[in-house]
């Protein structure tokens, strides 16, 4: 073959690759400059750019928002109806559940607006406006008002955010939030104006045996049969403005909602996802990938393992504890399993080797373009990694331990009370006493079991000491000196004798709040020591991040330039919980030798996985009856079967949960809810052949709402395209 022909083949391969994209959580506001609309249309998109995202008009992006603290949801009716994942609504479902009203087990179907349940604390946020503020930052650097290093600090970005907000038309409006964030490690900056609604009500949820079918066993795995959806609604005041909960609030009339397609998909079909991916780190050096493995994932696995073992046993022994800890268990277990899978996939997929190759290619590139900063930068990062790893390791140990144990003492308030008492400031004394009462109830809340937490502490505290070694917080001296190293005795005292361990102890302290009582209180001493430790580690970590900020910015700029110049492929910025779009195809894959995974599953698979003896794989009777009768209505596939889940090559991560999967015409075909086991290295390195997004088929969702839940009023609200 001659050289020209080879070059042509190489060239066409390159563009074929680019047209399929897959990797890339693209910024919608950058689609024009990065030329991605053309690439998307080439891949099958049948919409124009401003139908996806329009800075001034209404577009698809207006039907997508942030659900709660870390998920995505989409608007599916003109009356503010939201679809998201079951695991995203899980905390609300759990909070409304009790042994009497066990919505976790039985599901929840509001048969009228009046039955929709308020969820205090839950929010839904729309992105109102996105502004590129990079030039403002760069100009301030050019004018000498700030250094480049300062531009990369939170302090500066927060100050600029406030300044821009105050100058904007949004200033003073209720429900408006703003964010100013760096992208590409500070090579770009965007400001976001966000409209946050805080009266969100729970509308429907399937039983967990459907919405969480497969449980922890199937989590992060394909083939999957989970109907992972729940339904909520946005309420607002009569003018459609964000308003805190009130009986007078009405469903929000939404300017844009998604149309639903019952047409399904085939292998190779175009698919795209809009949503809020939380965090990726695709531009790390090899040494930094090792740091994630050893200093984040390893201690996370160990500490969560210890906690989850305690919770598993306690939940199995009591229905009350099972309901109390359901959401906490799922949350902890989710990234415990993710960390295990990520470390395995990083090795299996040879990510370290790929990183070495990337660094070699970058060194050659730096030499060719004669860029000294590029030539040095990997070395500069690597020089810090030893210290950074140590800090990250201790930080992870401390945070994981801190989060695992819920019992704590509000040390700050307690010492303020003692001070106020000494100074004879009676007003302050009364107000602090009242606050401490409230905090007590907050710790010992409806979903907290003091005995279970005590058992967690007995498991986790000695483990933390072992992991942190010499660098453990100084309250461990109490264990060594006063308890002769006997953790059980120490923890038992902490949980029975400290001021915050019982109402009686608190009442005694509030009667006579003295310095002496405080100084000998175990809870107080442990809390002080843990917090001091976290603060000092946090400060060191922040200093380290500042040292690395400019090298990171340089390295990312260089890698992006190299990819653009050598392969003509734009690079997407790392995820940071901002609105992104990813496009690709519905696609099967081969996880390992001789194994092929099809691109969709059906209800047949649910029946095959059924195991009446394993709570994760129980199939409810009513679903079995519908299956036997093949009573699928308009939701069946052409061959008469009921689809369950499907996979696409879209690039998503945690935070995308609940995101709409859209077809080439922007119609809703599924809800993204997971990633696959073989590519859990994807947050650090995307693998085009292995990485898949797992989505629940919208037809399965509607079938469950309609036939199992009998919630026809919701179906009537939707816009369905056959
Ligand atoms: N892995 C899913 C995600 O992070 C969460 C699935 C929740 N289910 C569970 N069994 N914990 O989006």
In brief:
The protein has 722 residues and is an alpha+beta fold. Helices cover 49% and strands 15% of the residues.
* General form: globular
Distance between the termini: 50 Å
Would you report the number of β strands?
Answer: 23
Q: What do the pLDDT scores average to?
A: 95
Describe this protein's structure.
Keywords: Aminopeptidase, Hydrolase, Protease, Serine protease, Signal. Belongs to the peptidase S46 family. One of its GO terms (molecular function) is dipeptidyl-peptidase activity. InterPro entries: Pep_S46, Peptidase_S1_PA, Peptidase_S1_PA_chymotrypsin. It is an enzyme of class 3 (hydrolase). Helix content is 49%, strand content 15%. By secondary structure, the protein is of the alpha+beta class. The strands form 4 sheets. Strands 2, 3, 4, 5, 6, 7, 8, 9, 10, 11 and 12 form an 11-stranded antiparallel β-sheet that branches. α11 packs antiparallel against α17 (450-468). The model is unreliable at 1-19 (pLDDT under 50). The structure holds arginine.
């Amino acid at each position: 073959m001659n050289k020209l022909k080879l070059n042509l083949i190489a060239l066409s391969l390159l563009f074929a690759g680019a047209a399929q994209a897959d990797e890339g959580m693209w910024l919608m506001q950058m689609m024009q400059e990065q030329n991605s609309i053309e690439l998307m249309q080439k891949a099958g998109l049948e919409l124009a750019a401003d139908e996806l995202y329009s800075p001034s008009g209404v577009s698809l992006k207006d039907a997508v928002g942030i659900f709660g603290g870390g998920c995505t949801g989409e608007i599916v009716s003109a009356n503010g109806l939201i679809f998201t994942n079951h695991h995203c609504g899980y905390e609300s479902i759990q909070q409304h559940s009790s042994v009497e009203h066990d919505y976790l087990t039985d599901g929840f179907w509001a048969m009228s607006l009046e039955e929709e349940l308020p969820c205090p604390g839950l929010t839904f946020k729309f992105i109102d406006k996105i502004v590129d503020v990079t030039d403002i930052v760069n100009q301030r650097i050019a004018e000498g008002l700030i250094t480049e290093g300062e531009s990369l600090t939170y302090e500066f970005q927060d100050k600029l955010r406030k300044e821009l907000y105050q100058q904007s038309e949004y200033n003073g409006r209720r429900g408006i939030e703003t964010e100013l964030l760096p992208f590409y490690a500070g090579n770009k900056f965007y400001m976001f104006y966000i409209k946050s609604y805080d009266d969100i009500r729970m509308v429907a949820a399937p039983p967990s045996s459907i919405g969480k079918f497969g449980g922890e066993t199937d989590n992060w795995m394909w083939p999957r049969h989970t109907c992972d959806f729940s339904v909520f609604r946005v309420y607002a005041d009569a003018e459609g403005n964000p308003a805190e909960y009130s009986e007078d609030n009405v469903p929000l009339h939404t300017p844009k909602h998604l149309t639903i397609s019952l047409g399904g998909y085939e292998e190779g079909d175009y698919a795209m996802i809009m949503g809020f991916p939380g965090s990726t780190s695709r531009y790390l050096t090899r040494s930094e990938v090792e740091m994630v493995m050893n200093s984040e994932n390893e201690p996370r696995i160990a500490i969560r393992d210890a906690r989850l073992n305690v919770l598993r046993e306690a939940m199995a022994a009591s229905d009350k504890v099972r309901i109390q800890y359901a959401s906490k268990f799922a949350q902890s277990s989710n990234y415990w399993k993710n960390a295990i899978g990520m470390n395995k996939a990083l090795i299996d997929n040879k990510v370290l080797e790929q990183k070495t190759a990337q660094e070699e290619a970058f060194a050659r590139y730096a030499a060719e373009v004669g860029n000294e900063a590029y030539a040095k930068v990997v070395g500069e990062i690597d020089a810090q990694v030893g210290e950074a790893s140590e800090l990250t390791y201790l930080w992870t140990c401390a945070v994981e331990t801190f989060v695992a144990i819920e019992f704590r003492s509000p040390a700050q308030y307690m010492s303020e009370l003692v001070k106020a008492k000494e100074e004879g400031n009676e007003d302050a004394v009364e107000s602090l006493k009242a606050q401490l009462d409230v905090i007590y109830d907050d710790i010992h809340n409806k979903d907290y079991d003091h005995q279970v937490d005590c058992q967690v502490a007995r498991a986790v505290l000695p483990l933390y000491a072992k992991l942190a070694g010499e660098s453990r917080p100084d309250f461990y001296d109490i264990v060594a000196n006063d308890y002769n190293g006997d953790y059980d005795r120490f923890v038992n005292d902490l949980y029975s004798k400290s001021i915050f361990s019982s109402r009686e102890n608190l009442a005694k302290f509030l009667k006579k709040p003295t310095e002496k009582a405080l100084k000998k209180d175990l809870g107080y001493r442990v809390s002080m020591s843990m917090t001091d430790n976290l603060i000092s580690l946090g400060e060191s970590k922040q200093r380290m991040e500042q040292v690395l900020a400019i090298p990171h910015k340089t390295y990312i700029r260089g890698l992006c330039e190299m990819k653009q110049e050598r392969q003509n492929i734009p690079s997407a910025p790392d995820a940071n919980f901002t609105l992104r779009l990813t496009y690709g195809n519905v696609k099967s894959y081969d996880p390992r030798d001789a194994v092929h995974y099809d691109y969709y599953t059906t209800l047949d698979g649910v029946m095959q996985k059924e195991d009446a003896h394993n709570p994760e794989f129980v199939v409810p009777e009513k679903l079995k009856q519908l299956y036997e009768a093949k009573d699928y209505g308009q939701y069946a596939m052409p061959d008469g079967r009921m689809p369950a889940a499907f996979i696409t090559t879209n690039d998503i991560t945690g935070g995308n949960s609940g995101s709409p999967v859209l077809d080439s015409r922007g119609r809703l075909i599924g809800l993204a809810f997971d990633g696959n086991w073989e590519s859990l290295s994807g947050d650090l390195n995307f693998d085009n052949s292995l990485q898949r997004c797992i989505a629940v088929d919208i037809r399965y969702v509607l079938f469950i709402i309609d036939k199992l839940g009998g919630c026809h009023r919701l179906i009537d609200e939707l816009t369905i395209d056959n």
